[in-house]
Amino acid sequence: MLYILKSRYIRNVVFRRKYVYYQINSEKVVFKLGYYDVAQICMNGHIINESYKENPQRNQNFCDKCGEKTITKCEHCGADIRGRYKMPGIADFRPKQEKVPKYCYNCGKMYPWTKSKLQALNEVIDLADELEDDDKNELKEASELISTDTPRTQVGVLKIKKYRDKIGGAIGEKLQDLIVDIASETAIKSMKEIGMLPK
Prior knowledge:
By secondary structure, the chain is of the alpha+beta class.
């Protein structure tokens, strides 16, 4: 039997080893705990297949958007890149995964697309004639701070606002786009709170 679970029908959820026990209305149901499939992502961060093992027919050696090779494992530690979360026996109507992970959950290193985005951001910062070299270096450091959720994320946001306001024209607009692209959820929230982004 296939169940489509909606939270208002679920009661008394209990996790035991590899199984999860639900009470759906008056019926008790047992499911195996969920697991992550493997994601296939290109070096520029385009998601090719969020279910590499379950749907191998969608796999590609190279990206059809940019031509870069695709990977399924962290290049530093070899851990699988987490893809779609699966729960056996439960229908999945969630939309396709759009966000890619920035850092490896196993070793903490940047994925190649995170590194590429930061490099592109740094190149745009170097084009900003309004900033001195020391200012550019501080802005680059702040850009990396906002890519993670740490106590210093908001410090990075404030530094970026300080220097972003000095940069105008096309360079300023492109800088803003790249900052939003690399920013963590915490950084995005902070930028909205201080007026850098619309709420």
